[in-house]
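Entry, Tuesday afternoon. Goal for today is a structural model of the target with LF53FM6H bound, before we commit to ordering more compound. Inputs were pasted exactly as handed over by J.K., no edits. I checked the ligand SMILES twice against the vendor sheet because last time a stereocentre got dropped in transcription.
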Amino acid sequence: MKPTRPIIAIVCCHKLVDGQPTQAVYQKYIDAVQYHGGNAILLPYTAADDSNFSALMSLVDGVLLTGSYSNVAPARYGATHIEDKPDLNRDTLSFQLLDYAKMHDVPLFAVCRGLQEMNVYFGGTLHPDWRPTGLFYEQHLEDSSRPIEEQYQTIHDVLIEEGGYLASFGQKWHVNSLHKQAIDRLGDSLQIEARAPDGLVEAISLSQHPFMIGVQWHPEVSYDNDELSKFLFREFINHARKRHHTPYQAQASQT
Ligand SMILES: N[C@@H](CCC(=O)NCCCC(=O)O)C(=O)O
């Protein structure tokens, strides 16, 4: 019997917990999905290797790519610098999920590292560190010596582009910002949805897809009290719900 709420697969990150390798997702991502009516499940990196991947994904109605302190492997976007915070297994799973979501019209929402993965998956590149570029003046990086609540406080505006998915929300909002990397060259078929006042790309979407959106900020920390965060999670889960109500056979014939 089908569950009543859409199943949202959340990609896990590699962490050490009590000195032991662990597949982990911050609670806030799970809470955001549950609050907006989804049924969160966590996907460890082993899901990517599994010959059962397609069968597993046929049960999934939406994919959430979370933020992470780790970075996308430079080789994925043609860069050669040494990366000291890699998570190669997460890269593999996220890219496979992006592939599947693109091919099968699965709703996908990507946050921070997730947006960066989405851009790289579609052939774009990243600034490995936006600070030495001299291109941006907003405060995009948190002060990690401050309490967590302060790190995730809203810090700059985002200017929403006309004609995109977010335009139905409004023209301008204010967001938090905690990232060292940033989009340099935009990936193919991607549309810029919003920029910071200094021009940094803050939100992207895939054209010709029901819902594939990435944001550079963190809506999951304010999923129940910030209008844009609520809009994003509501739209994501609503799209997943529509897919959930499509009979599996009809979905399979889309392949
Ligand atoms: N490592 C990348 C991406 C930054 C990012 O995703 N931060 C998230 C912090 C943890 C969280 O709240 O999910 C970069 O530095 O740009």
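Residues 104 and 253 are 10 Å apart (CA to CA).
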